[in-house]
Write a structure and sequence with these properties.
Number of domains of chain A: 2
Order of helices and strands of chain B: EHEHEHEEH
Structural class of chain A: alpha/beta
Radius of gyration of chain B: 12 Å
Number of strands of chain A: 19
Number of helices of chain A: 6
Number of strands of chain B: 5
Order of helices and strands of chain A: EHEEEHEEEEEEHEHEHEEEEEEEH
Helix content of chain B: 25-40%
Helix content of chain A: 10-25%
Mean pLDDT of chain A: 94
CATH superfamily of chain B: Glutaredoxin
Distance between the termini of chain A: 9 Å
Strand order of the largest sheet of chain B: 1-3-2-4-5
Number of helices of chain B: 4
Shape of chain B: globular
CATH architecture of chain B: 3-Layer(aba) Sandwich
Number of domains of chain B: 1
CATH architecture of the largest domain in chain A: 3-Layer(bba) Sandwich
Largest interface: A-B, 31 and 25 residues
Low-confidence stretches of chain B: none
Strand content of chain A: 25-35%
Strand content of chain B: 25-35%
Low-confidence stretches of chain A: none
CATH class of the largest domain in chain A: Alpha Beta
Mean pLDDT of chain B: 93
CATH superfamily of the largest domain in chain A: FAD/NAD(P)-binding domain
Oligomer: heterodimer
Largest sheet of chain A: 7 strands, mixed
Chain lengths: 307, 106
């Protein structure tokens, strides 16, 4: 029996684990087969305090994991499959194992939102990607598009210019919502051009991507654009739907009460799975800390002794 | 885990008696660092039944492009000289195990 089971291993989950283990609570992290969260798919993180020159996203996550484990967190590299939060102790299952916990912290974060257009799904890894740092070197001297208008779209495009011949950022609105500093970097890059008021209608190709069908959403005009790769950066969707009995809001995020609590007593939540607003590594880590402190407080109120 | 190159690929993979899983990876690829230890463990587990090797795509671009590897990590299982299963992106160990089992059984 664990005092705390943390589901998720991004900044929220691992920070929570650092706090609960240091509070001498027996802690399990159900980290997932792809542990580490969204930062594993990034390069240089320049806004995480304490790293004046920036730090590679994957290095930051490896350090957080090491820190949690050093304080005694157990880590299981399997995906959460189902949980029973209707009775205590709570039950958390993976494909091959079942665990019992006195409390649970859900920190499952968010995953890439795909376009959902014909031709996309079957070409993921064959020219369709959501991870420029992973796949950019395969597109040396190629022509690419990045879909999206936020920070991650600018970052993806900038990474791709190190290898690609030309990168076109395609955005459905008439202006970007990315931060000014990233917009400027993208606009100043000679390899990057922009297509506004445009959506991708279809991704084409046989073995791999060879083109896209685009629609100008002001004129309705459809054009074909020959292209070697499509990088999707239109945001993330919270990983909330796998949990039964938990209250979810209209946008699909786990409904949060008083910063860290779900509708089920003893089940706490932290990070991008409830946070539609900030979605930063540092805020996720902060939420993880808060959830861990609340879980500790709650356990103290429920149980006389810690074991 | 044995390193395969463009030069040794035919002998070590295509002509292998056992089904062979090739881990296409590169040093700059963070998700590869998640997958490689997992497939290494599977290699030990399946010793005698299947072979597990890795191929650095930076140093061996011919093999990577021949099998249309455009994203890493990619795992391809070869049997009797043919690719029979492809897994793109980091995956839970169970999914990789299932793919190896299917390749052995097919």
């Amino acid at each position: 029996m664990h005092d705390v089971i943390i589901i998720g291993s991004g900044p929220a989950g691992l920070t929570a684990a650092i706090y609960t283990t240091r509070a001498n609570l027996k802690t399990l992290v159900v980290a997932g087969g792809k542990w580490g969260g969204q930062l594993m798919l990034t390069t240089l993180v320049e806004n995480y305090p304490g790293f004046s020159e920036g730090i590679q996203g994957p290095d930051l996550m490896m350090a957080m994991r090491k820190q949690a484990q050093r304080h005694g967190a157990e880590v299981v590299e399997e995906d959460f499959t189902e949980g029973d939060f209707t009775k205590k102790p709570f039950v958390v299952k993976t494909a091959t194992k079942s665990f019992e916990g006195k409390s649970v912290i859900i920190a499952t974060g968010a995953d890439t939102k795909w376009l959902g257009v014909p031709g996309e799904k079957e070409r993921i890894g064959r020219g369709v990607s959501s991870c420029a740092p992973c796949d950019a070197p395969f597109f040396r001297n190629k022509k690419l598009i990045v879909v999206g208008g936020g920070d991650s779209a600018m970052e993806e495009a900038l990474v791709l210019t190190r290898f690609a011949e030309k990168v076109t950022i395609i955005h459905r609105r008439d202006s970007l919502r990315a931060s000014q500093i990233l917009q400027q970097r993208a606009k100043n890059n000679p390899k990057i051009t922009f297509l506004f008021n445009t959506t991708v209608e279809e991704i084409q190709g046989l073995e791999k991507v060879t083109g896209v069908k685009l629609k100008n959403n002001q004129t309705g005009k459809i054009t074909d654009m020959p292209i070697d790769g499509v990088f999707v950066a239109i945001g993330h969707a919270p990983n909330s739907r796998i949990f039964q009995g938990l209250e979810i809001d209209e946008q699909g995020y786990i409904a949060v009460h008083n910063h860290t609590k779900t509708n089920i007593e003893g089940v706490f939540v932290a990070g991008d799975v409830h946070d539609a607003k900030y979605r930063q590594a540092i805020t996720a880590a902060g939420f993880g800390c808060a959830a861990a402190l609340e879980a500790e407080r709650w356990l103290d109120s429920q149980y006389d002794t810690k074991n | 885990m044995a390193d395969i190159t463009d030069r040794t690929f035919e002998q070590e993979v295509l002509k292998s008696q056992l089904p062979t899983l090739v881990d296409f990876w590169a040093p700059w690829c963070a998700p590869c660092r998640i997958v490689s230890p997992v497939v290494e463990e599977l290699g030990e587990e399946y010793e005698g039944k299947a072979k597990v090797v890795k191929l650095n795509v930076d140093d061996n671009p011919d093999t990577a492009s021949r099998y249309n590897v455009m994203s890493i990590p990619t795992l391809i299982i070869f049997k009797n000289g043919q690719p029979v299963k492809t897994i793109i992106g980091a995956q839970p160990k169970e999914n990789i195990r299932r793919a190896i089992d299917e390749a052995i059984g097919s």
